[in-house]
Amino acid sequence: MEGLENVVVLAGGTDGTDGPTEVAGAFASGTTISKARRLGLDATEYLKRNDSYNFFKQLGDLVITGPTKTNVMDVYILVVGD
Length: 82
What we know:
single chain; about 25% helix; 3 helices; 4 strands; glycerate kinase, domain 1
């Protein structure tokens, strides 16, 4: 998805938490990787460690809702603009 313009993805859980964290999910876009590089982050290394929390935290792209008490499913939303 790197380099795609006008594309945003939300990946999150309806229960409002992911594992032991307060995070429901995160946003990513076509600029996520370039933003990470500017901050000196290597997305591949975070992926190898299964550490999306610390990756997206440093980008400021976490979704924090707090517990919703509705553990229905995980949600993935892709929005493509003009």
